[in-house]
Amino acid sequence: MLINARSGMKNSKAKLLDAIDVFCAHGYAVTVYVTQAPNDAYEYLKHNKVRYDIICVFGGDGTMNEVTNALMLKKEKPLLGYFPSGTMNDFGSNFDLGSDIKAIAERICKGDEIAFDVGCFNGRYFNYVAAFGAMCDVPFTTDRDAKERLGNIAYILEGIGKLPEVKPIDIRYSAKGKTYKRNVLFGLVYSGSRVAGMQLETKSRSNIDDGMFNVLIVEYVPTLFDAPDILTTLIQNKKYIHRFQTDHIVFEFDEHVIWTLDGEEARPGNKAEITIINKALKLLA
Question: Model pTM?
Answer without folding.
Answer: 0.84
